[in-house]
Amino acid sequence: MLVTGGAGFIGSHLVERLLGGGESVVVIDDFSTGRRENLAGVEANPRLRVIEAAVSAHPDLETLVAESSFVFHLAAAVGVELVLDAPIHTIETNLRETEAVLGAAVARRTPVLITSTSEVYGRSDKPWFAEEDDLVIGPPSASRWSYACSKLLDEFLALAFFRERGVPVTVARLFNIVGPRQSGQFGMVLPRFIEAARQGGPIRVFGDGTQTRCFCHVRDCIEALMRLRACGAARGEVVNIGHDDEISMMGLAELVRQTVGKPVEIERVPYQIAYRAGFQDMPRRRPDVRKLERLVGFRPSAGIAEVVRLVTSGL
Ligand SMILES: NC(=O)c1ccc[n+]([C@@H]2O[C@H](COP(=O)([O-])OP(=O)(O)OC[C@H]3O[C@@H](n4cnc5c(N)ncnc54)[C@H](O)[C@@H]3O)[C@@H](O)[C@H]2O)c1
């Protein structure tokens, strides 16, 4: 198995699961947002090899891919704040690394799963987002959309490699995955809220707090990824992975406050202060997970209260 971005939040859980199943794993990670500590629990495993490099800069990428029976491509520039601060880096990384992986997979038609994002649904106002929906991306003057567009182009590229070059590719669109090792440093909301509550507050809710999101525990996400790997019918397909239990950001702050058990303040912070003028957010973002269920017979099980309880307990 080759896992790009395997020292990141989701990647490290995937690597643990693969090693736990007796597989041999090569990780390529440049440690830009990933950390060595994320792999601390498995670093002594002789079936794990960790290569510190940017994916496209590795001189033997083709060989590494050719020697793998499957590639999970997770390496990407991730996180709203990172994307706002470094749009060139985001666009270049997300395009270049995916192109490199897909190009290397052609020789042996190595199966690849690439992780895309619910961000690609953009400003769609549909109550549920399904894979065949039209996508409503904001204008290029709002740089937060550079992440969505770069990931969307990855999707187009992946499906083009499937059709034109016969690379068996699956695209997984992930919706707010949470769990241990996720860093709040790059703007991820749940770890940020929990940390704020533990530190005595305030929990800072951006915007008016009525915007809703759905959260999926990383364990459920990994189960879905593993099942998609084994699913021939998912090749050439885009598949949502997420939980459809919806909560507003004010509701989430309240739930975190109760779960952490400290009487901290909850403070609303206007977007233009939290981010910058003209920041665009979506009122809601809820996955339709029927395709996932139809393909692999699984849908994420941990609802929002369970997810917050698990993450607050470090699980
Ligand atoms: N966490 C979520 O909720 C979420 C939601 C949607 C999509 N995703 C996607 O899932 C994947 C993993 O995200 P994550 O949340 O674990 O983030 P993460 O930042 O923890 O993981 C990304 C990993 O990729 C590595 N990386 C970045 N650029 C690289 C490069 N050029 N070469 C090699 N390694 C590189 C980073 O060091 C990091 O270890 C990403 O593709 C992301 O777009 C995540």
Topology at a glance:
Layout: E1 2-4, H1 9-20, E2 25-29, E3 48-52, H2 61-66, E4 71-73, H3 80-85, H4 87-105, E5 112-117, H5 145-165, E6 169-174, E7 177-178, H6 189-198, E8 203-206, E9 212-214, E10 216-217, H7 218-229, E11 237-241, E12 246-248, H8 249-260, E13 266-269, H9 271-274, H10 290-296, H11 304-312
Parallel strand pairs: 1-2, 1-4, 2-3, 4-5, 5-6, 6-11, 7-10, 8-13
Antiparallel strand pairs: 9-12
Helix pairs in contact: 1-7, 4-5, 6-8, 8-11
The chain binds nicotinamide-adenine-dinucleotide (NAD).
Which molecules are bound in this entry?
nicotinamide-adenine-dinucleotide
- Second rung of CATH, namely the architecture of the domain at 2-175 and 218-242 and 287-300: 3-Layer(aba) Sandwich
Mean pLDDT: 95
Q: Low-confidence parts, pLDDT < 50 over ≥5 residues?
A: none
Assigned CATH superfamily of the domain at 2-175 and 218-242 and 287-300: NAD(P)-binding Rossmann-like Domain
Structural class: alpha/beta
CATH class of the domain at 2-175 and 218-242 and 287-300: Alpha Beta
Strand order of the largest sheet: 3-2-1-4-5-6-11
Percent in strands: 15-25%
Name the overall outline.
Answer: globular
Cα gyration radius (Å): 19 Å
**In CATH terms, what is the fold-level topology of the domain at 2-175 and 218-242 and 287-300?**
Rossmann fold
